[in-house]
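User: Show me a protein chain along with its predicted structure.
Assistant: Here is one chain, sequence first, then structure tokens.
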Amino acid sequence: MSESVGALPEGEQGNSVAETDSNLLQLGDIPDLYLAQGEIGRFWLDEYVVIGAAANLQWSVTGMAGLRVEIDLQRRVEIQMPLDFSGREVLLFTADDDAGHSAVVAVRVWVLAVEEQQLEDEAVSSDVQEAVAKEGEKVTPDPIATPLELVGRPKISLLAGRVDSTLVLDSLVVTGDPGAVIWSLRGGVFIRASIDRQRRLHLDGTDALPGREIFFIEARLGSTIRQVQLTVRVQAAVFALQPMKILRLESTERTLDLGAFVTGDFAPEEIEWSMQIPAGIDAELADGQLRVVAGQTGLFAFSLKATSPAGQTIEAELVVEVLAADEVDEGGELPGVVPVEPNEAEPLPTIGESIEEEIPVQVDAVENRPVDVRSPDLVLSGHLLQTGTVEFHLRADEQLAGMPVVIADGLVLAVVARDDYYVAQYTGATGSIQVLAAGSDLAGNTAETQLALSAGNGPGILSPDGLLRVQGRLGAVLLYGDEKGYRVDLQAGSTAELVFSGAAPGQGLFRLGEEGWQEIPAQIGEDVLFAVVAEGGLYRLAKGSATVVQAVPTAYPNPFNAEVVLRYHVAAEGMVRIVVYDALGAQIRVLLNQWQGAGLRTMLWDARDQGGAEAASGIYLLVVEVGGGRRARKVMLIR
């Protein structure tokens, strides 16, 4: 069977919710902001309006504890950091149009503590003059970033209904001081997660369903921030009962430990029991101990139900045969059964006690039917159609009972069965998308799986784990990571730049093709690898030969007459400021002051000052301020 990625049959297209006007207003994902204490961050909301008339929107913001946030008439956002504030804030920006439509986008603002703002504009002059005198390339040395590296993609197995606290986050730190790292996490659906003061991760799977849940663990050490994706594989706990056979006794009483029949991942004392007592016999059940008091002779069938902490239930039948006195051998013994009459030397066991030698011999086995307790294994993937619609494919390793459920961002999608997989489509996908799929096999075992994706149109899309950014002149983009690498789907005609964080010299970028993994041209600078691609596919970092580039800016032509192009490297997305100074340290012009994504960038200077007048011939410094550091390139203007 060939797998096709295309539109659903007529009458089956679209989300399974009623068509509304919600698609008339949609917002794109706004990148996280990283600011220093006292710093002001700015961005324009119009840039993140995907669908709708940006000029007609009314904006509001909530979640401003500790921050000053203003939105002006041009819909420019200005966020000012107090000098005594550090940590993270989440801001919710709400857009409303005249037709009553509303959309919300979340922005995380990270505020990093710094001792003071260095190299103010009035101090730049002396630095520039010193740099010119030494003919050096750096105005000031870059601050030394605190080294921090984490292991890649850790995985944990968790039994449904259980709690796990085995992962100490210090074990994820490869480089850096584990004790100084500040941790945070997000993600998950049914698993409740927390981090204690000993940096131990606690996972509560009381309400978890079999399948996979994704968490994103973020580590911050000084100004260095790293993020790692944690996969929690939730497995259905094994729970079964050994076959129960006929219990024979005369007109007396007997206590039976039901825990002796429990097998699997749960301790006997964790199992809850209930029963239905047949007429003609007395019994009581407490703490897994069944006390039977014989009445009239005959066969009596007890209906028992055992329930595990994970909610699994098993029904069983225990048959008790009460014999008449004439069926007892001489000496008062049942055939082949240990005598059960009480005696002074050894009193009859009571509720809560268990005497192994007094469990009667078991004969006449009742039919034992095997119980299927294994949940199906579900695999979910995403694909971008040319229309911009996202199509999800769900596969199971066994037949499912009915249609599975696929939920994207809270919307229940229509599901169609193909030959050996299921298809659901999601229109209007943008930003970060959380997808949940669940299904049950023919035995009633339920499994669940999740997928975190990023989708949308715009200048840049960030992967859910924050390690890959796709940027450029893009159409629709779909992006997510799995065990093999990163799946990047591009709309036809798009050319994208892939920017990987956490790369190191000696690595390269590989794409999975018909002949296996093949390395493609890429460049690496500091801890960022970037490459320009014209097609989607599955990409990953591995040992390779990416070209190492220097962080020092370059300028060409140099000397120049009418204009000069500055090429510089942004190691991690953030605020970038480019300023032109003359040889005396006077500020001539601010070329750039805005948020930019990671990668190689270019900026053109047309040899004019801030007022538009032509600059005089001479030596100038083009200063790039990014990531808390400053670098410069000396150029010569000849009229």
